[in-house]
Design a protein that fits this description.
It is found in: Cytoplasm; Nucleus. The chain is an alpha/beta fold and 484 residues long. It has 22 helices and eleven strands. It folds into three domains: 239 residues, Aldolase class I (TIM Barrel, Alpha-Beta Barrel); 96 residues; 57 residues, no CATH class.
């Protein structure tokens, strides 16, 4: 039977899905997908999988796909990151029997994607992408889809989408942000770009970006004309988003934890989901946030969830009539609701800055501020600051070290070779030399060894001498007997 394409693929295989859960690294695992499907999601993606690792590592395949087969978890699209046509297709061939389509990730904007040369950092390499999609479209028994980010220019974005369609892409998900729009610089996704792509291609299009509640989904479909809408952060904070409900947080958390009992996943995934679900509540109960971060077992996480529920129920019981949510939230903190990520200016105002010059600077710049304001530091640096209040993260105050003649690392101050310890050890061993500065005594130990061996040759105890004399006499007697 020939594989379905375009509109037919979306309508029959994907069952005309409008509500889609995004591929999220370590967050769209089977347990979360099943929870989301129970509450309105019609299509789910796996977390992004690394094609090269998937191809070579049987354990990786089992942990991320093969061991998760579940009839309820369909339709399902498996997403890969890759930058080599052969590797991508070989990995997809191993996955195609467990899903309804294979997606190529062309939207990840993170630094790890830049270092690995995949995701949104391939969007300028159109020849490579054409070869990858053409080969996949030819070899796979399931359709190939793509998830992209936009270019600042709408016309270039449209040509990009048309190129992918011509190469064989059967469904396109368009995230309405550029690869530079991430973290505190994310800003608003451009539905105008998405609308232009939808009008320019003949394959189904999903929109991604600015989705916090069901009314956003409906408005996005109305304005852009897309076939479906994908949600990531909105879904993590409210898995009932596609139902149009804002349930009590503990209801979603308890249901998710029950699914995890049946379909286990790494504890880090579970903890991360509860941090998202309980986000607003954990800003009230800081101690429980620390407990959730430290707990080492699923039962421990369940206990923290139970305690959070009891605290909220007690707060509800003591609530005064007419009391309104605090901190500008649309609902009380124990109700599932969106988290609005602050932009650069809002983040600076929260940290006490003017919001002008510092407001437009990136995360790393904020982490390296010289004024000692711990709110501007990363969480790891804040922890170091707590352990050592006098610690400074100003790069200009870091001590300057002389470099190793061999590799450029800091050299030992008393090294006889002007090297770091690693290079010094290799040279001292090769030359049988000493370096007191690094505590390396190859020459001294070699000389002691030779001295000991020499002394052993010159020492003969009386017992040894008598035994040797007896052996000599016995040999002589045997020889004489043989001669006679």
């Amino acid at each position: 039977m020939p594989k379905l394409r375009g509109e037919a693929f979306w309508r029959e295989t994907l069952r005309g899905a409008h509500y889609v859960v995004a591929p999220m690294v370590d967050q769209s695992e089977l347990a979360w997908r099943l929870l989301s499907r129970r509450h309105g999601a019609q299509l789910c993606y796996t977390p992004m999988l690394h094609a090269q690792v998937f191809l070579r590592d049987a354990n990786y395949r089992r942990e991320n796909l093969y061991g998760e087969a579940c009839p309820e978890d369909r339709p399902l699209i498996v997403q890969f990151c890759a930058n080599d046509p052969e590797v991508f297709v070989q990995a997809a061939l191993l996955a195609q029997d467990y899903c309804d389509a294979i997606d190529l990730n062309l939207g990840c904007p993170q630094m790890i994607a830049k270092r690995g040369h995949y995701g949104a950092f391939l969007q300028e390499e159109w020849d490579l992408l054409q070869r990858m999609i053409l080969l996949a479209n030819e070899k796979l028994s399931v359709p190939i889809t793509c998830k992209i980010r936009v270019f600042p220019d709408i016309d270039k974005t449209v040509k990009y989408a048309q190129m992918l369609e011509k190469a064989g892409c059967q469904l396109l998900t368009v995230h309405g942000r550029t690869k530079e729009q991430k973290g505190p610089l994310a800003g608003v996704a451009s539905w105008e770009h998405i609308q232009a792509v939808r009008k320019a291609v003949n394959i189904p299009v999903f929109a991604n970006g600015n989705i916090q509640c069901l009314s956003d989904v409906e408005e996005c479909i109305r304005k852009t004309g897309v076939h479906g809408v994908m949600s990531a952060e909105g879904n993590l904070h409210n898995p009932a988003l596609f139902e149009g409900r804002n349930p009590l947080v503990w209801e979603m958390a308890e249901e998710y934890l029950e699914i995890v009992r049946k379909y286990p996943c790494p504890l880090s995934y579970v903890r991360a989901h509860l941090f998202k679900l309980w986000h607003h509540t954990l800003r009230v109960y800081h101690q429980l946030r620390e407990e959730l971060a430290k707990v080492k077992t699923l039962e421990g996480i369940i206990d923290v969830n139970r305690e959070l529920k009891l605290r909220c129920q007690e707060e509800i019981a003591n609530q005064k009539e007419g009391e309104k949510p605090k901190e500008g939230l649309p609902f009380f903190h124990w109700i599932c609701q969106p988290y609005i990520r602050p932009g650069p200016k809002e983040r600076c105002r929260e940290n006490g800055d003017s919001g002008t010059e510092k407001g437009v600077r990136g995360k790393r710049a904020l982490e390296e501020e010289e004024d000692g304001n711990s709110e501007l530091l990363s969480k790891n640096k804040q922890k170091k600051k707590l352990r050592n209040p006098n610690k400074s993260f100003d790069p200009s105050l870091k001590p300057k070290y002389a470099k190793c003649d061999q590799c450029g690392n800091p050299k030992g101050n008393k090294c006889v070779f002007n090297m770091c310890r690693g290079c010094c050890k290799k040279r001292a061993f090769k030359e049988i030399a000493d370096c007191p500065g690094h505590g390396l005594l190859f020459k001294t130990k070699h000389e002691k060894s030779l001295s000991w061996q020499h002394s052993q040759r010159g020492i003969q105890t009386p017992e040894i001498s008598q035994r040797r004399d007896a052996e000599v006499r016995e040999t002589a007697v045997l020889k004489e007997a043989g001669d006679s």
